[in-house]
Write a sequence for this structure.
């Protein structure tokens, strides 16, 4: 008979021997033009072959791009957006929502102009206070079926109901990832909606000619509870998941790439796969890459809209409060 400590030590030695015989080699990334393809921040039609451009001014970079493409109308709206942004920085906290909203609205118009998408000049969003005491749950935002915000939503692949959609401001805030942690500090009884992930990338099985999304969880989230919340993902047993989990998206796509030269059909399927996956992922602008998966196992208070449309909808209502009820 051996003691429990001796048994655990023996198991550890066996595992170590297994790893030496069959090391956990990371899966190979898919490549395009000799460059590993990763998740892009762009949701629609990302350019996988493009190189990263470093700039200290997004405003100036986009301006240069618009000028090079002779996008005069888009450039006008972009410059308007920048002017409202600069004005916002010098205003009081109560006044900021008004100019910030018009910054967002003009930036959205610039995008629609560049993409050649027609849109109604109406804003496409409205708000009101429902009956009851002053509370963000009584502040409603209605996304209209026509207007700038509606056109933005359609471009991002969102369903726009004929009669519009109404949500309260509390639920909208809950669904915005970059304020979610602060929101949770105030409303601690509501479930965590966004799960942080590390190193999202596309990997493939060369033999089966299949590719999929691979993500890692932080050590504190690498447990069965978190795994159960990530619908459509499973543990990749190729890796040593004792410290941090490596997960694979169950949905795959065909990836035929002899000598790392993917076929046209493979690139098409990558684009379609990426567009679907990006609807599940959220990115927070930061010096570090901050990626999150939005949970799909929750039913209450969930809004199936992008961060862009939710932000502009929320800011519209805040701008109304800034104008008409500044002491609220």
């Amino acid at each position: 008979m051996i003691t429990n400590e001796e048994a655990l030590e023996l198991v550890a030695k066996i595992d170590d021997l297994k790893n030496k015989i069959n090391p956990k080699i990371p899966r190979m990334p898919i490549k395009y033009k000799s460059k590993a393809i990763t998740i892009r921040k762009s949701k629609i039609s990302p350019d996988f072959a493009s190189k990263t451009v470093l700039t200290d001014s997004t405003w100036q970079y986009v301006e240069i791009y618009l000028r090079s493409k002779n996008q005069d109308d888009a450039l006008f709206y972009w410059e308007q957006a920048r002017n409202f942004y600069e004005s916002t920085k010098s205003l009081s906290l109560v006044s900021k929502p008004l100019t910030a909203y018009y910054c967002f609205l003009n930036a959205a118009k610039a995008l629609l102009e560049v993409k050649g998408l027609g849109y109604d000049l109406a804003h496409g969003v409205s708000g009101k206070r429902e009956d009851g005491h002053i509370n963000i749950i009584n502040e409603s935002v209605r996304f209209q079926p026509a207007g700038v915000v509606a056109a933005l939503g359609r471009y991002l692949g969102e369903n726009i109901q004929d009669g519009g959609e109404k949500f309260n401001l509390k639920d909208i805030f809950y669904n915005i990832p970059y304020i979610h942690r602060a929101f949770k500090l105030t409303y601690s009884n509501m479930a965590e909606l966004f799960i942080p992930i590390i190193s999202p990338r596309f990997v493939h099985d060369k033999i089966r000619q299949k590719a999929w999304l691979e993500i890692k969880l932080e050590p504190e989230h690498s447990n069965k509870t978190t795994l159960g919340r990530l619908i459509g993902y499973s543990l990749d047993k190729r890796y040593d998941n004792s410290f941090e989990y490596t997960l694979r998206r169950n949905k795959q796509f065909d990836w035929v790439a002899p000598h790392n030269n993917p076929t046209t059909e493979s690139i098409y399927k990558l684009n379609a796969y990426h567009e679907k996956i990006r609807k599940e992922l959220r990115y927070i602008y930061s010096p570090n890459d901050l990626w999150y998966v939005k949970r799909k196992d929750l039913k209450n208070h969930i809004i199936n809209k992008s961060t862009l449309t939710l932000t502009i909808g929320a800011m519209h209502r805040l701008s109304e409060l800034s104008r008409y009820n500044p002491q609220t």
The longest strand covers residues 194-205. The chain has a mean pLDDT of 92.
